[in-house]
Structures are given as C-alpha cells and as structure tokens.
Specification:
The chain is mainly α. The chain has 3 helices and 2 strands. Strand 1 and strand 2 form a beta hairpin.
C-alpha cells in the first residue's frame, strides 16, 4: 500500500514538474514579447490651436497607440495568470516532495519492523 502511494506520489511529482517547466517556458515567451516602446515614442501629439493643454493625434497614430495599449494590458494579464499558475505548481511540487519524503521514511521504518 505504501509503495503504491509512493509510486503514485512520484508519478504525480514528475507530472507537476513537467507542468511547471512548461509554465516557466510559457512565462519566458510572454516576457520576451514585450511591447516595442519605439512604436509609442514615434507618436507625437499636435497642439490644438485654441487649447494649448490639449493635443490631437492622427487617426493612424491613435489606432497604433490603442493597439499597443491593448496588447500591453493583455500581456500583463496573461503574464500575471501564468505566474500564479507557476507558483501554484511549484507549491504543489514542494508538497509532493514532502509527501514522498514522509512515505520514504514510513517505508524505511516498516522495513525495519519487518527485519
């Protein structure tokens, strides 16, 4: 019974480690897709004649700015979600490692009792 629990925990640990590695890889990919700041820096507001505190943008510039802002928001949201999943997977891996240690210790004590 203990050996089956041990093998089940070991299998689960390997699966969670693989999931964590996949999440870590996905997180790195997301971080590499950072928004190009140059696209935003190229956009310049032109002052409105009667209101010096306001500016206007060309329609294409506004669309570019809007698209970049939406992509940035989506990227940050996705990165946050992936990080939470990675943290949960790492916690589960730690818990499984602790469970394996306790099962190993229990198995060792049962072996000693049998001998």
């Amino acid at each position: 019974m203990i050996s089956s629990a041990f093998s089940l925990a070991a299998t689960s640990l390997r699966q969670k480690e693989a999931e964590a590695a996949a999440l870590d890889k996905q997180l790195e990919k997301t971080k590499q897709k950072k928004v190009k700041i140059e696209n935003i820096d190229k956009i310049e507001g032109k002052p409105i004649i009667l209101s010096p505190s306001r500016v206007y943008l060309e329609k294409s510039e506004y669309e570019t700015l809007s698209t970049v802002a939406k992509k940035y928001y989506a990227q940050e949201k996705k990165e946050s979600k992936i990080q939470k999943m990675l943290d949960a997977a790492n916690k589960m891996i730690s818990d499984l490692k602790n469970q394996i240690k306790s099962l190993t210790a229990e198995m060792g004590s049962l072996r000693e009792e049998l001998l």
